[in-house]
Write a structure and sequence with these properties.
The complex is a heterodimer. Chain A is of the alpha/beta class. The longest helix of chain A has 10 residues. Chain A is built from eight helices and seven strands, in the order βαααβαβαβαβββαα. In chain A, α4 links the parallel β2 and β3. By secondary structure, chain B is of the alpha/beta class. Chain B contains 17 helices and 18 strands. In chain B, strands 4-3-2-5-6 form a five-stranded parallel sheet. In chain B, β8, α8 and β9 form a beta-alpha-beta unit. In chain B, α1 runs antiparallel to α2 and α13 packs across α15. The N and C termini of chain B lie far apart (57 Å). The chains are: A alpha/beta, B alpha/beta. Chains A and B meet through α5 and α8 of A and α4, α5 and α7 of B.
Chain lengths: 163, 461
C-alpha cells in the first residue's frame, strides 16, 4: 500500500485531548469528530486539512486519554497516516485496531517539513520526501500488527477467530 | 549459580554508581543483563507472572506478543458506545461472560445533556440485553477506578483491561491492569481475551518517611517530573520501598493511577498485608497474591529519598512540568477541584477537610469537592466532612468525572486558572483552550482554595 500526501507537522506530546477535545465526546460519529480534529493544537486545522494529507509529529504522539475517538477523528478528516518519533501506547494499539497507518521514524521526522509532499510504502516502511528528494526508513511493523492490518483491523481479526 | 553471580555483580556496580560514568555504564549493563536474564528465563517480575498465568504458561518475556485471558473488562459512557457498536460487528451473539464486563456511566453522568443521555442509554440497554451484572446506574455508580476496587470487583492477581487510560490504577492491588481502546474492549467482550506486548519493566524505589502533607500524589508527580511524560513509554512501572510499605491503599492507587502520565503500560505494587486487609470483606471470589522474584532485572531503576520530596505541583500544560508548591505562591486561581479517580477517595476528602475546617473559601474562588463514589459520599457525610466543605463555601457534588476532563460540573472560562487533584493539565483539559490547570494533592488544593492562590497547608494552619 502506497500513501502519498502533503504534510502537517506537529511537535512533542500531542495528547488525545488536543486531537479531539472531550467537549466533543458526546458523539462517536466520525464526521462530527472530524470537524474538531486537532482543534486545541491548531484551531484552524479542521478547515485547513484535506483528504489524503499526512501528519508528521515528534515524540509521544497520542498521549493521555485512551479515547479511540482520536484516531477515528484523524481518519475521518482524511488523514492517511501519521509518522512520529514515537507513539503513546494506547494510541498506537488503537491505530492498528481501527486501521490508521502509523510509522515510527526519527530520520523522517527530522527531514520532513510542513508542506512537503511525501510517499510512504506501508509494506517496506520506506518514506520518500518528494519535495526534497530524500528517503528515510521507518521501524519495521511487528508481525502481529501486520496480521491485524492484513485482516482489516481487530474486529475482522476477531471475527475470524470466532469462526 | 549464574543468577547469583549476576545479583552480586549488580550489587557491586550499584555501590559505585555515584560516579556518573559508572552510573551510565551501570544502566547500560543493567539493561543488557535484563535482556540476558529474560533470555535465560526463570527470574520473573510480578507483571510477567500475572501475564504468564493468564496465557496458561510459567513465564513470558518482554517484547513477546501474547493473547491473554482477561478477568474484568471495563468501559464508560464515552468509550462503551464505540465498543458496543464494534462488538455487534464481530457477529458474536453473546458476551464472553456476563459477570466480567463492567459498564459505568461516570464521565458525562449524571447525564449532562441529551447527547450524553443517549450515550448512557446505550450502556443501560446493552447491559439489559446481555444481563450484565456489573452495570452501575446513576445512584450506584461512582468514578470507575475508585468504584471497582471499593466494590471488590478488581482483585490482586487479576488481569484487567479498560477503555479508559487510568485503568492502570488497580496495579495498587497487585493486579495487572491497563488502558486500551474501545475496539479492544469490543473484541474482549466477544472472546474474553486481549492482545498485549509484554512490557519491559522499570523499578521505582521510595526510601524513607513522608513529610507532613506529602502523599502518594506528590511522589508520583515528582517521579513524572523526573522521568518525563514518556519516561516509561510502553513499560511496566513497579513501585516499592519503605514509603510504599507504609502507604495506605488510597495513596497507592493514586500512584498507580498516574503511571499512564509517564507513558507507562501499567503501574504495579507487590501486594502485602495492607492489600489483604483492604480486599478482606470486599472480595466475592478467589484472588491470588503474586510477588516479584528478588533477582528480577529492570531496564532502569530509580531511587528516591522521600524525606526530600515536598508538596509538588504540575504546572501547565504537562504533568511532568513539576515545581514545589511553596515556589508557586504568586499563582492566583479561580477554581479548585478535589476529586477524580486520582484523589477522590475518603482519605483525600479527610485531607482536604482537615486543611479547610473552620476556614472560608476565598471570595475569588469556586471550590468543587467531588467524592468519587456513593460509599465515599456517605462516609464523608457521616464524618461531618460534607458539612465542613459546605460551611467553608464549597459545593459538595454527586460522584462524576465531570470537570477533570472538561465534561461538566466546573468548566473553566477563557483565561481562568484551576488547581485540581486530578491527573492531567493538558491544553483545554478542564475547559477553554486558553484556561490553565495545575495538579496537586488534596491538602495543597484546599489551602489554595482558602488563599485564592497556590498555597501550602502550613500557610493556613
Amino acid at each position: 500500500m502506497i500513501l502519498k500526501g502533503k504534510v502537517w507537522k506537529f511537535g512533542n506530546n500531542i495528547d488525545t485531548d488536543a486531537i479531539i477535545p472531550a467537549r466533543y465526546l458526546t458523539t462517536s460519529d466520525p464526521a462530527e469528530l472530524a470537524k474538531h480534529v486537532m482543534e486545541d493544537a491548531d484551531a484552524e486545522f479542521p478547515s485547513k486539512v484535506s483528504k489524503g494529507d499526512m501528519i508528521i509529529a515528534e515524540s509521544n504522539f497520542g498521549c493521555g486519554s485512551s479515547r479511540e475517538h482520536a484516531p477515528i477523528a484523524l481518519k475521518a478528516a482524511g488523514i492517511q497516516g501519521v509518522v512520529a518519533n514515537s507513539f503513546a501506547r494506547i494510541f498506537y494499539r488503537n491505530c492498528f485496531n481501527i486501521g490508521l497507518p502509523i510509522f515510527e521514524s526519527e530520520e523522517a521526522v527530522k527531514g520532513i517539513q510542513e508542506g512537503d509532499n511525501i510517499e510512504v510504502d506501508a509494506d517496506s516502511g520506506v518514506i520518500k520526501n518528494l519535495t526534497k528528494d530524500e528517503e528515510y526508513t521507518a521501524k519495521p511493523i511487528p508481525p502481529f500488527m501486520q496480521e491485524l492490518i492484513a485482516a482489516g483491523g481487530l474486529i475482522e481479526w476477531t471475527k475470524k477467530r470466532l469462526g | 549459580m549464574i543468577l547469583s553471580v549476576f545479583a552480586l555483580l549488580k550489587a557491586l556496580i550499584h555501590l559505585t554508581n555515584s560516579d556518573y560514568l559508572l552510573y551510565i555504564s551501570f544502566k547500560s549493563f543493567l539493561k543488557n543483563l535484563y535482556y540476558f536474564e529474560q533470555f535465560l528465563g526463570g527470574i520473573v517480575n510480578i507483571t510477567e507472572k500475572i501475564l504468564a498465568a493468564h496465557v496458561g504458561r510459567d513465564e513470558v518475556s518482554a517484547g513477546e506478543l501474547i493473547n491473554a485471558k482477561v478477568d474484568v473488562i471495563l468501559a464508560n459512557d464515552i468509550t462503551a458506545p464505540i465498543a458496543i457498536t464494534e462488538f455487534r460487528k464481530t457477529g458474536a451473539k453473546n458476551v464472553c461472560d456476563k459477570d466480567k464486563i463492567a459498564l459505568i456511566p461516570d464521565h458525562f453522568a449524571p447525564q449532562k445533556d441529551i447527547q450524553a443521555a443517549e450515550q448512557c442509554k446505550m450502556l443501560r440497554e446493552f447491559s439489559k440485553e446481555h444481563d450484565l451484572s456489573l452495570y452501575f446506574e446513576v445512584g450506584k455508580m461512582g468514578v470507575e477506578h475508585a468504584l471497582l476496587p471499593e466494590q471488590g470487583i478488581v482483585l490482586p492477581g487479576d488481569l484487567v483491561i479498560g477503555a479508559d487510560s487510568h485503568t492502570c490504577t488497580y496495579g495498587a492491588l497487585g493486579a495487572f491492569s491497563t488502558g486500551v481502546g474501545s475496539t479492544d474492549v469490543a473484541s474482549a467482550m466477544a472472546t474474553g481475551e486481549c492482545w498485549f506486548k509484554v512490557p519491559e519493566a522499570m523499578k521505582f524505589v521510595y526510601h524513607g518517611k513522608l513529610n507532613k502533607w506529602v502523599s502518594g500524589k506528590d511522589l508520583i508527580l515528582h517521579t513524572i517530573g523526573d522521568i518525563g511524560v514518556d519516561g516509561a513509554l510502553y513499560r511496566s512501572m513497579e513501585f516499592e520501598g519503605e514509603a510504599i510499605n507504609a502507604m495506605s491503599m488510597s495513596g497507592r492507587m493514586t500512584m498507580c493511577n498516574m503511571a499512564i502520565e509517564a507513558g507507562g503500560k501499567n503501574g504495579i505494587m507487590v501486594p502485602d498485608s495492607t492489600t489483604v486487609e483492604y480486599v478482606k470483606g470486599r472480595a466475592k471470589r478467589d484472588y491470588k497474591l503474586y510477588t516479584t522474584d528478588s533477582d528480577s532485572s529492570y531496564v532502569d531503576v530509580r531511587e528516591y529519598d522521600v524525606s526530600k520530596i515536598m508538596p509538588t505541583v504540575s504546572c501547565p500544560h504537562l504533568p511532568s512540568n513539576t515545581k514545589v508548591a511553596a515556589d508557586l505562591s504568586n499563582i492566583t486561581i479561580d477554581q479548585v477541584v478535589v476529586g477524580s479517580c486520582t484523589n477522590g477517595r475518603i482519605e483525600d476528602m479527610r485531607e482536604a477537610a482537615e486543611v479547610i475546617k473552620g476556614k472560608k473559601v476565598n471570595s475569588n474562588v469556586r471550590l468543587i469537592v467531588i467524592p468519587a463514589t456513593q460509599e465515599i459520599f456517605l462516609q464523608a457525610m457521616k464524618e461531618g466532612l460534607a458539612e465542613i466543605f459546605v460551611n467553608a463555601g464549597a459545593v459538595f457534588s454527586t460522584p462524576t468525572c465531570g470537570p477533570c476532563l472538561g465534561g461538566h460540573m466546573g468548566i473553566l472560562a477563557k483565561g481562568e486558572r484551576a488547581i485540581a487533584t486530578t491527573n492531567r493539565n493538558f491544553v483545554g483539559r478542564m475547559g477553554h483552550p486558553e484556561s490553565e490547570v495545575y495538579l496537586s494533592n488534596p491538602a495543597v488544593a484546599a489551602a489554595s482554595a482558602i488563599m485564592g492562590r497556590i498555597a501550602t497547608p502550613e500557610e493556613v494552619q
